[in-house]
Inverse folding.
């Protein structure tokens, strides 16, 4: 068995071959990883994810998979889907399954349906299965998309901002769920909520055109500054405290703690 | 009403009946896809672009529907390609094909020697003059669509719902997109004779909007849309016959009426329930 699931080496992505949106992305994803991807809006977080999933082609470098691509689960940004599309919750979840026979003849695929229903009840939303996707709240919708991403029993789960449009209650529930899933699979989680995720993730990837891998979940403003990653962060020390934006002059760093 | 049965003894009426029947099937199914994917105006572009083919058909002395079919399919692919590869915004891309097709049509109808017979029937429809060949083609199309959607239902549903996610699960997204846009083009062209270029969009959207009041499941939406389309076109046809008005416009009018009444009924029912 190979100990790495995915190797990302010197990946660079540009649009129209001129606007570089991502460069020097190099890191590995290992079986029990829980990687938080942070960075400013427009910094290339989503591009990194899309390159990882093969949705955009890198101009340079390579992404090497040691697991079949169908063992990668994906939860895209919620605003990517049309919320008024006439589709039921159960069908959305089932759409995550790859390799089913293309011929269906309206026939019920019993194993797929049962597994989808099992996922929905684990997430506590089994009673919503015949509802249309548009009738759900933001938190319920994210749960449905999480179920969809688990249909192939992935070894790597990639989530792009699963914490948008959800209430605080669901947010903590979601992170607990991810922690539980992390016992079975590696997770790559994109979020703008740096403070909360650093509490759950094991390592951090900072994306602001350049990509920096940071092998722990504690990251200081100074490190962020050296990564050129302008963010407001909350750290979880003995006493949780907020570290505001980095300063231009670094000579008095740390004193405002 | 013995008169309705009497009507079926006329060939032209039997033809019109079958034409409405097949139109309901093909427009009901394809319209559900169009409405769900919000590509109503892509379809509008294809419809109007097909007029270019009708013009060239007149000019060359072919059956105008052959020209229309070629133009419709090419413009459908063109809109898709412009948007995907050419980085033209979709609505602008639609407008380009829409007006280009109309312009070519107008030029060639003008250049065609003599008077263009039946031109109005392509613009506004003429279900009473549908030929036997056209009926056969419509029947075959309906059968092909039923089979395709029955066999590949989930494939179409998943790609239509979330194209990018479908790519990550390895579905042939581009193939499905181009195939479906071709089906849309052919459906539009073969139904031009029923309600005409100007009015065909309604047959692709009104029954679906009515059906959407009852269900939000793609599969049921298709079936209900076919029913509402058939109800609308048949009663519109009868209405046009008794009142002696153009059938295409009459069908649209009935479809709108059905939608309005259904919406009102649902509104009143909800009102009473909460009163």
């Amino acid at each position: 068995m190979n100990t790495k699931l995915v190797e990302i080496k010197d990946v660079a992505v540009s649009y129209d071959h001129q606007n570089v949106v991502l460069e020097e992305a190099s890191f590995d994803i290992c079986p029990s990883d829980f990687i938080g991807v942070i960075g400013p809006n427009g910094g290339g977080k989503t591009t990194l994810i899309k390159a990882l999933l093969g949705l955009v082609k890198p101009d340079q470098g390579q992404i090497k998979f040691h697991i079949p691509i169908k063992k990668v689960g994906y939860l895209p940004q919620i605003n990517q889907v049309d919320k008024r599309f006439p589709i039921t919750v159960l069908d959305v979840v089932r759409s995550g399954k790859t390799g089913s026979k293309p011929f269906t003849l309206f026939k019920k695929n019993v194993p797929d349906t049962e597994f989808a229903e099992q996922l929905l009840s684990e997430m506590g939303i089994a009673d919503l299965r015949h509802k249309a996707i548009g009738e759900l709240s933001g938190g319920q919708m994210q749960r449905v998309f999480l179920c969809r991403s688990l249909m192939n029993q992935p070894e790597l789960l990639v989530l792009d901002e699963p914490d948008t449009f959800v209430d605080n209650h669901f947010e903590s529930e979601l992170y607990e769920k991810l922690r539980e899933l992390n016992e079975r699979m590696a997770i790559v989680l994109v979020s703008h909520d740096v403070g909360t995720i650093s509490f759950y993730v094991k390592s951090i990837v900072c994306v602001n055109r350049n990509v920096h891998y940071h092998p722990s979940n504690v990251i200081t403003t100074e490190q962020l500054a050296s990564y050129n990653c302008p963010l407001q962060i909350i750290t979880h020390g003995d006493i949780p405290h907020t570290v505001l934006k980095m300063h231009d002059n670094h000579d008095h760093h740390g004193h405002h703690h | 009403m013995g008169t309705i049965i009497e009507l079926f003894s006329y060939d032209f009426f039997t033809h019109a009946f079958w034409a409405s029947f097949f139109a309901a099937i093909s427009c009901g199914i394809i319209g559900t896809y169009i409405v769900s994917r919000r590509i109503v105006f892509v379809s509008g572009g294809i419809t109007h672009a097909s007029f270019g083919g009708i013009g060239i058909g007149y000019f060359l002395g072919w059956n105008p529907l052959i020209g229309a079919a070629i133009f419709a399919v090419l413009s459908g692919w063109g809109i898709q390609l412009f948007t995907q590869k050419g980085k033209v915004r979709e609505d602008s891309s639609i407008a380009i094909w829409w007006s280009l097709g109309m312009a070519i049509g107008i030029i060639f109808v003008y250049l065609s020697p003599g008077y263009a017979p039946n031109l109005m029937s392509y613009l506004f429809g003429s279900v009473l003059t549908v030929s036997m060949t056209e009926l056969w083609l419509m029947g075959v199309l309906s059968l092909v669509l039923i089979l395709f959607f029955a066999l590949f239902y989930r494939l179409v549903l998943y790609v239509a719902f979330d194209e990018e996610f479908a790519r990550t699960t390895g579905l042939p997204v581009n193939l499905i997109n181009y195939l479906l846009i071709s089906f849309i083009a052919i459906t539009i062209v073969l139904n031009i004779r029923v309600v005409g270029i100007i009015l065909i969009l309604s047959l692709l959207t009104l029954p679906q909007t009515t059906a959407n009041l009852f269900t939000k499941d793609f599969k049921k939406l298709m079936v209900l849309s076919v029913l509402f389309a058939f109800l609308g076109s048949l009663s519109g046809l009868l209405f046009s016959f008794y009142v002696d008005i153009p059938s295409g416009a009459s069908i649209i009018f009935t479809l709108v009426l059905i939608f309005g009444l259904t919406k009102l009924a649902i509104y009143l029912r909800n009102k009473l329930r909460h009163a």
